[in-house]
Specification:
Elements lengths: L1 E2 L2 E4 L13 E4 H5 L4 H14 L7 E6 L5 H14 L4 E9 L2 H10 L5 E4 L11 E7 L8 H11 L4 E4 L11 E7 L2 E8 L3 H10 L2 H8 L9 E4 L6 H11 L7 E2 L20 H7 L6 E5 L6 E5 L4 E2 L1 H11 L4 H6 L3 E5 L5 H9 L2 E5 L7 H5 L5 E4 L3 E4 L7 H15 L3 H12 L1 E12 L1 H15 L8 E4 L2 E10 L2 E2 L6 E2 L4 E5 L4 E6 L7 E11 L9 H4 L1 H11 L1 H5 L6 E2 L1
Parallel strand pairs: 1-9, 4-5, 4-6, 5-10, 11-12, 11-13, 16-17, 16-18
Antiparallel strand pairs: 2-8, 3-7, 6-7, 9-10, 13-14, 14-15, 18-19, 20-27, 20-28, 21-22, 22-25, 23-24, 25-26, 26-27
Helix pairs in contact: 2-3, 2-5, 7-14, 10-12
The chain binds 1,6-di-O-phosphono-alpha-D-glucopyranose.
Length: about 575
């Protein structure tokens, strides 16, 4: 059937500024406002693909959350009308964020659109999100997201092809004639390409020696997909390929509302995994977020590996992974609030180590320039230059590779690291859904405080500890590759012993403000390595609350989440 594109008039919205990772809003914001989604998609196509739009190929996929199917169908119609030649779409619209990144790279497309609000809750009363990734497979840099925002503020029309009906449930190719040009929709097996790639990166035979049913040195694992998009990937990789028993995987059916839970792999929201691991029957546990880019690693008895330590452990052991045997290890990076544990490994291995703002998009340039192999963030993101997104399943396969290679337990690997480098204690306290005005006031006060020359050298005491402020600033980053400057990325008080207190407002929430308080303290006394980080860091936490007046301003007496 011959189809025609149409121009549809629309009115702009003033709130479509992408945050840390795409536009995240309540589902109702997208659903109940005329053309809200269409406007953002049209702006994304213009700003993200621009001159290359006509005849382009794009990847489209998401984490299966509520409203994803409607948005996928809408994107198909709009791409057809905008002159895109081909879309590669995961079956039923399902693709993990790392899988989208890989497909963009593998098929050399002009980018991709990811439909996810990541770890935010889903369902009709939850959140939805739209994110554009560039041809390198990574999240769009700020130059593009700022341009998207500019376009959304003045958009007056979008293009669509209302009569086009594609079936996204059946694997295969469908073609349409739109204004005389061929438009192709290819529905892919959501997991096949990604699984093949993981088999190239890792030595599956080695991992099998510990996880396969009947293995000689068995490690009982429990992998929790939290009803996010990773379910089918987890089943195919851990059960079908690695031979782990069916009982090793849980919550593997993707649900539109993630079973009513918060699909965020941390000690609070993955409490069911923690509870199960505490029974002492498993040696390894892991969970992923809704779109599969985050991971949490636990050892025996739910021994918690902070994402900061996870990065450092992997940094030290990458050599056992075939991918890095081939590419070599170029350098490491972490986001600014992430602890300096990996910096200590970098120092000992003589590699470069970069500190970037929060947001995976800041790692891409370094990877493309061949200076970065492994990076991570305290927000449960770990990944490498195999793609340009963080990758939860990859992180678990990397951990299992290290466990199989070293024949050590998770806890032993951590103890080895602390014994060699000392322990960077780290915690993050989140105060979620705080009123915006007091949160902004707190940040304004802190910004005023750090420019006071009297602050450097000032001493703060709590309990038996006294700290002297050595550096006070708001983190600013100059990208070493393109020299772009990103300012205002978090207020830091760095103490003379390198302890740090950092304040930031989250850029991924959808209502109110979320204050993130990051605390890091270093200990080189082996007697303290086994202590609870909340106990060790209490003096710094108290000082942070005292300096910021967080409780007085927000009325919050306790964080909503502690990691
Ligand atoms: C996103 C970004 C991450 C970032 C995280 C936290 O994660 O991809 O790079 O660290 O947000 O951001 P914020 O502290 O601003 O909330 P995800 O998993 O939500 O895409």
């Amino acid at each position: 059937m011959a189809l025609t594109a149409q121009k549809v008039g629309t009115k702009p919205y003033d709130d479509q500024k992408p945050g840390t990772s795409g536009l995240r809003k309540a589902v109702k914001v997208y659903q109940n406002q005329p053309n809200y989604t269409e406007n953002f998609i049209q702006a994304t196509l213009i700003a993200g693909v621009g001159d290359r739009l006509k005849g382009s190929t794009l990847v489209v996929g998401g984490d299966g959350r509520f409203y994803g199917k409607e948005a996928t169908e809408l994107i198909i119609r709009m791409c057809a009308a905008n002159g895109v030649s081909k879309l590669l779409i995961g079956q039923n619209g399902l693709l993990s964020t790392p899988a989208v990144s890989y497909l963009i790279r593998k098929y050399q497309t002009q980018g991709g659109i990811i439909l996810t609000a990541s770890h935010n809750p889903g369902g009709p009363d939850g959140d939805f999100g739209i994110k554009f990734n560039t041809p390198n497979g990574g999240p769009a840099p700020e130059a593009i997201t700022n341009r998207i925002f500019e376009i959304t503020k003045s958009i007056s029309e979008y293009l669509t092809c209302p009569a086009l009906q594609a079936d996204i449930s059946t694997i295969g190719t469908q073609t349409f004639q739109v204004d005389g040009a061929t438009f192709t929709v290819e529905i892919l097996d959501s997991v096949a390409d990604y699984v093949t790639y993981m088999k190239e990166i890792f030595n599956f035979e080695s991992i099998k020696t510990i996880v396969a049913e009947g293995a000689v040195t068995p490690l009982k694992i429990l992998i929790n997909a939290m009803h996010g998009v990773t379910g089918p990937y987890v089943r195919r990789i851990f059960v079908d390929e690695l031979g782990a028993p069916e009982s090793s995987i849980i919550n593997c059916v993707p649900l539109q509302d993630f079973g009513g839970h918060h699909p965020d792999p941390n000690l609070t929201y993955a409490a069911d995994l923690v509870k199960e691991l505490k029974k002492g029957q498993h040696g390894f546990g892991a969970a992923f977020d809704g779109d599969g880019d985050r991971n949490m690693i636990l050892g025996h008895n739910a021994f918690f590996v902070t994402p900061c330590d996870s990065l450092a452990i992997l940094a030290q052991n990458l050599d056992c992974i075939p991918y890095f045997q081939k590419t070599g290890v170029k350098g490491y990076a972490r986001s600014m609030p992430t602890s300096g544990a990996v910096d200590r490994v970098a120092k000992s291995t003589g590699k470069e180590c970069f500190e970037v703002p929060t947001g995976w998009k800041f790692f891409g340039n370094l990877m493309d320039a061949g200076r970065l192999s492994l990076c991570g963030e305290e927000s449960f993101g770990t990944g490498s230059d195999h793609i340009r997104e963080k990758d939860g399943v990859w992180a678990v396969l990397a951990w299992l590779s290290v466990l199989a290679h070293t024949n050590k337990s998770v806890e032993e690997l951590l103890m080895d690291h602390w014994n060699k480098f000392g322990r960077n204690f780290f915690t993050r306290h989140d105060f979620e859904n705080v009123d915006t005005a007091p949160a902004n006031e707190m940040m304004a006060n802190l910004n005023a405080l750090i420019v006071d020359p009297a602050l450097v050298g000032k001493q703060y005491s709590s309990g038996d500890k006294t700290y002297t402020v050595a550096v006070a600033d708001n983190f600013s980053y100059t990208d070493p590759i393109d020299n772009s400057v990103t300012k205002g990325q978090g207020v830091r008080l760095i103490m003379s012993d390198d302890s740090r207190v950092i304040f930031r407002l989250s850029g991924t929430g959808s209502s109110g403000a979320t204050i993130r308080l990051y605390i890091e303290g270093y200990e080189s006394d082996p007697a303290k390595y086994g202590l609870d980080s909340q106990v060790v860091l209490k003096p710094l936490i108290d000082i942070a609350l005292q300096v910021s007046q967080l409780q007085e301003l927000t009325g919050r007496t306790a964080p909503t989440v502690i990691t």
